[in-house]
């Protein structure tokens, strides 16, 4: 995987472009407007923790897609294309092209995963202080479901303290599998809350969920799309925001710890072709799966 692309979108850039737009290109404006518009999309869905998660998702969608195609697509199209890309990366075979189109505007996109491999990386996790960090992790970034009620442990062993539990039939965020073990790292609201014994759980079947159910999606990992690499401060801030918004979440925000751990994760080279109003753009990138289900451009 030879192609590497790094994207950075910060509040400072937004402020500069907002005050000096006449000195920027359409591509630059598209990048920042895309990020801001993405936040607007997210804020239209969900309440409480669900609304916060949707806002975060919309923001990263707008930023990444906006950078790639400038001002070719509007914010809603950007969000749809990014989600379509996330779904393609999660299920399409190498060389298989997934298409998207908007018949109202004539916009169209073709997303093609080109090659697939694995990479040894340091990935960021946010955890409750009572939960131990794993020595090494196999990243999953999937929604799993319990077959029966199960304890959550502070460490990947039956000797560890019980720090919570999952109900029978409960869907949850499977951040990853502890390397060389039968334990799954469990996430909720962008943070690790414990470990569950793998024989008690399984990968959940895909479901089509209406936007009105985004509160429930925020508690699992139904975030699908592209994002730029996120630093530790950003990861911690997202987790604190989500925890603070969850009415049933009693987490002390000072008890959250962010750090990088050794991990093996799936990475794919992808090509995206976008067209609208006679304009065409092609972008290539290497993306790697993250524990929250998003694909990070590296």
UniProtKB/TrEMBL annotation:
Provide the SH3b domain boundaries. Answer: 149-197
Superkingdom of the source? Bacteria
Q: Report the leader peptide range.
A: 1-21
- Keywords assigned by UniProt, alphabetized: Signal
Domain annotation Glycine zipper: ranges: 29-77
Output this protein's name: Surface antigen
């Amino acid at each position: 995987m030879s192609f590497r692309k790094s994207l950075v979108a910060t509040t400072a850039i937004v402020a500069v472009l907002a005050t000096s737009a006449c000195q920027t290109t359409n591509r630059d404006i598209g990048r920042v407007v895309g990020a801001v518009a993405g936040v607007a999309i997210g804020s239209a869905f969900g309440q409480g923790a669900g609304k916060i998660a949707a806002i975060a998702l919309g923001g990263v969608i707008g930023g990444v897609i906006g950078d790639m195609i400038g001002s070719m697509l509007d914010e809603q199209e950007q969000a749809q294309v990014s989600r379509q890309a996330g779904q393609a990366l999660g299920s399409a075979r190498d060389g298989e092209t997934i298409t998207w189109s908007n018949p109202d505007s004539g916009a169209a996109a073709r997303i093609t995963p080109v090659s697939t491999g694995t990479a040894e990386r340091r990935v960021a996790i946010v955890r409750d202080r009572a939960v131990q960090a794993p020595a090494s992790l196999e990243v999953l970034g999937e929604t799993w479901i319990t077959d029966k009620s199960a304890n959550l442990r502070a460490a990947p062993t039956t000797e560890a303290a019980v720090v919570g539990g999952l109900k029978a039939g409960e869907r949850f965020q499977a951040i990853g599998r502890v390397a060389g073990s039968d334990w799954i790292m469990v996430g909720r609201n962008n943070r690790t809350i414990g470990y569950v014994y793998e024989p008690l759980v399984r990968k959940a079947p895909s479901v089509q969920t209406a936007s009105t159910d985004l509160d429930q999606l925020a508690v699992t990992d139904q975030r699908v799309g592209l994002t730029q690499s996120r630093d530790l401060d950003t990861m911690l801030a997202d987790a604190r925001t989500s925890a603070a918004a969850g009415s049933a979440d009693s987490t002390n925000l000072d008890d959250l710890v962010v750090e990088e751990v050794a991990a093996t994760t799936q990475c794919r080279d992808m090509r995206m072709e976008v067209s609208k109003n006679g304009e065409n753009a092609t972008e290539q990138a290497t993306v790697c799966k993250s524990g929250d289900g998003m694909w990070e451009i590296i």
